[in-house]
Design brief:
Blueprint lengths: L16 H11 L3 H15 L1
Helix pairs in contact: 1-2
């Protein structure tokens, strides 16, 4: 009998690409540049 269900709330259930794309547009930088910077910060902070 299954008593617990665990869901991953990451890219499976939510997509944040529109969120970051709106920031890139507001900052007037290319979307892929902001995406690369966010990825770099995530990697360095680990």
């Amino acid at each position: 009998m299954i008593r617990t269900v665990v869901l991953d709330g990451g890219e499976t259930l939510t997509r944040d690409d529109r969120y970051w794309a709106s920031w890139a547009d507001w900052l007037h930088v290319p979307r892929h540049t902001l995406s690369a910077l966010v990825d770099l910060v995530a990697i360095v902070s680990e």
